[in-house]
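hey can u check if this looks right to u? its 406 residues, i copy pasted from the old doc so theres a chance i mangled smth
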Amino acid sequence: MSRTYGLTVSKLALAMAMAGVIALPAQAVDFDGYFRAGPGATSKGAARACYNLSGAGVSGAGTHYRLGNECDFYGEFGLAQTGTVDGVTYKAKVMFNEYNPGTDIGTSSSSFNQMYVEGKGFDIAPNTNFWVGKRFYGRADVHILDYKFTQLDGVGAGADSISVGGGKLGLAYFRTDNGNLGSSTTPGTRLNADLTELGVNAGGKLRLTGTYTKGDFSGGTSGYALSLQHDQENFLGLGGGNTLWVQYAQGSAGMNQNFGNLTAPSGTKGFRVVESMTWQKGALGGQGVALWETNKDATTGLKTDMISVGGRASYAIGKNFKLVGEAGYSQKKPEGSPTQKLAKFTFAPTLSTGPGFWNRPELRLYVTTAKWNSAANAGAGPAGLTGLSNGKTSGTSYGAQAEIWF
């Protein structure tokens, strides 16, 4: 395939199209996004390695402590045009991403991950926001894990900001079509009801999310999921916050309130509890997390339990220099198999635009060390936990990374 300065023709066309949108004078255009990138290596000349338990339960959540532990390049870049016409305020959003699982050598991929329009002020329901398209939706995450415990993303349509009982209700319909015309497809339907901003105590708000899924093909199954999320401001007076999730899923629904496996029988069940707090007290900021999860696969009849606990702390030496450290421990116990264990620690001297935990961009140097057991290697397959096929149960990596959101 022909290339122009490292871009494929399709990517170059995409970039030119977005540049053209920026140049349009019609309405205000906002630009936002995120990316992380940087070189890395593993000690003793081995290929770059990262340290995570493989396939940790049905959800795959909770073992990826990301600081100094990301072997990919990733960026997402969005444009939004906003305007008001005869009392209707609208936004049209387009976002594409660029992903490379290794470095700049090899195959990267890009795609549109958002393309939707939303509007508010329509005379039939002036205070309700209506939307249609492909979008990020209803996300709630733990940053240090790079995992969204609630993630309603997809292609669909919906309405939100509906006042109900002191809170705001969102209703959404999503479809997925896993295939192309003329080939086998596994289409599915998802319905979400999301009730947010319920004041339940001083500085505390409750969110309730319900999900129904159905595989609309021969062999497809239905499922449902429920999520309770409590957010507390200024938790323990530490200048940050606290989020508690209690989540359940059954059948073809995922615990993150999205699609799960659309052929999973009703006996497939998952349950988890997640506690995460952030803080910023003077020069010391950070985020911690504790997770317990259990899953049962009705197809195999096997149960898997998982726990994970860890945190990241930053200490500002000055306005623009921080010392950052992250430690995490995770274990996974598949029924009838040995317990898989992994411990990881990273130290990262960091330049930043400010002294706070959330200040970005950050420019980091890092050293990461990890230890795991032979069961973790076996669970990851023939190449082992690192993918290096060396049978080792410890490793050290180092590198530099830039991270920014804008």
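The helical segments are 9-23, 374-380.
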